[in-house]
């Protein structure tokens, strides 16, 4: 009997280890632990670090106008070094400098990034905070917030990303179509609230350039606004169709979604994630990671806390 129990335990442990290995493999080289507690940013991390990165402004043209993004460059940035790059979009009603802070500033989240890198918790990375504001108007299409988030993926692919990554040191050896596609494993896009809606749009249009997507407190509006709740199956089906049309499957990318259990967006995002995690459609399944913060609200401080925790999964040395 004792031998049988030991044998059973061995089989269970082997199965658990095997499952962990599959998860790590499907995470495209990332070590993601969704069971880990989502922790607040430590108070000491909110203060300026000894080794400080900087927020700079990057201007670019869109249609007949101009826009800019805020760019975080880590301490000791060297243009000859290749850095992984994370694009993060703000929420509705916010603006370009809401997440990282304005160029030359040093808000608490920027300080936390400095500490994470200085203490070796994460690798030095570049973080880009663009805005969807005016994306539609400058392209001469539908205006308003819904039009802006719909127009942004084209702006990202054609106007922002090639020019920005030609200036800064990323894994893109060239910033033509081939160079950006070949470096997709080192590029991520995430966003909060309407920025999460934008993230789902980027997944549906620019998957060839990104291998990691991080929708934060926001569902997909491919079928209708609030479609994650009001048209869940149809919305997931639309995402599946969009991924397949781009020629990709579940081994080619990951979705890392995060929100709070007191977040107003939870009822919209949660039904989608439940279906996507259990999917066997070849697009979603064990490439979908979903974390819910106990007591988390729909706020910018919550977004910054989520990024602080997620970066420790995505950019571990």
The termini sit apart by 45 Å
By secondary-structure content and strand pairing, the structural class works out as alpha/beta
Overall pLDDT, averaged? 90
String of helices and strands: HEEEHEHHHEHEHHEHEH
Strand percent estimate: 15-25%
**Spans with pLDDT under 50 lasting ≥5 residues?**
1-25
Backbone shape = globular
How many alpha or pi helices? 10
CATH architecture of the largest domain: 3-Layer(aba) Sandwich
Computed Rg: 20 Å
Q: What profile does the largest beta sheet have?
A: 8 strands, mixed
Q: By CATH's scheme, which homologous superfamily of the largest domain applies?
A: Alpha/Beta hydrolase fold, catalytic domain
- Number of DSSP strand runs: 8
Q: Order of strands across the biggest sheet? A: 1-2-4-3-5-6-7-8
Overall CATH class of the largest domain: Alpha Beta
Any overview of this molecule?
It is globular, with a radius of gyration of 20 Å. It has an eight-stranded mixed β-sheet, with helices on both faces. The chain is an alpha/beta fold. It contains ten helices and eight strands. Helix 9 links the parallel strand 7 and strand 8. The chain starts with a helix and ends with a helix. The protein folds into two domains: 1-30; 36-314, Alpha/Beta hydrolase fold, catalytic domain (Rossmann fold, 3-Layer(aba) Sandwich). The longest helix is centred in the N-terminal third of the chain and has 25 residues, at 2-26. Residues 1-25 have low confidence and may be disordered.
């Amino acid at each position: 009997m004792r031998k049988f129990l030991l044998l059973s335990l061995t089989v269970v442990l082997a199965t658990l280890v095997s499952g962990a290995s599959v998860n790590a493999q499907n995470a495209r080289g990332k070590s993601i632990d969704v069971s880990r507690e989502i922790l607040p940013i430590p108070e000491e991390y909110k203060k300026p670090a000894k080794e400080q990165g900087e927020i700079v402004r990057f201007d670019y043209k869109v249609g007949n106008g101009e826009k800019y993004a805020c760019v975080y460059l880590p301490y000791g940035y060297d243009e000859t070094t290749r850095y992984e790059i994370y694009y993060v979009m703000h929420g509705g009603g916010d603006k370009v400098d809401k997440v990282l802070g304005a160029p030359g500033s040093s808000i608490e989240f920027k300080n936390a990034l400095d500490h994470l890198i200085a203490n070796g918790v994460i690798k030095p990375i570049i973080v880009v905070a663009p805005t969807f504001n005016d994306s539609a108007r400058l392209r001469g299409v539908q205006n308003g917030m819904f039009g802006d988030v719909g127009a942004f993926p084209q702006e990202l692919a054609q106007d922002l990303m090639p020019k920005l990554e030609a200036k800064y040191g990323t894994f893109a050896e060239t910033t033509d179509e081939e160079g950006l596609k070949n470096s997709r494993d080192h590029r991520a896009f995430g966003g909060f609230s309407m920025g999460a809606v934008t993230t789902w749009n980027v997944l549906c249009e620019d998957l060839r350039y990104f291998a990691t997507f991080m929708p934060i407190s926001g569902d997909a509006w491919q079928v209708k606004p609030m479609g994650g709740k009001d048209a869940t199956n149809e919305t997931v089906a639309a995402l599946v169709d969009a991924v397949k049309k781009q020629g990709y499957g579940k081994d080619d990318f990951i979705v890392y979604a995060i929100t709070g259990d007191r977040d107003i967006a939870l009822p919209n995002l949660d039904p989608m994630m439940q279906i996507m995690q259990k999917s066997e459609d070849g697009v979603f399944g064990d490439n979908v990671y979903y974390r819910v913060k106990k007591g988390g609200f729909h706020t910018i401080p919550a977004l910054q806390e989520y990024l602080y925790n997620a970066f420790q999964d995505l950019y571990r040395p």
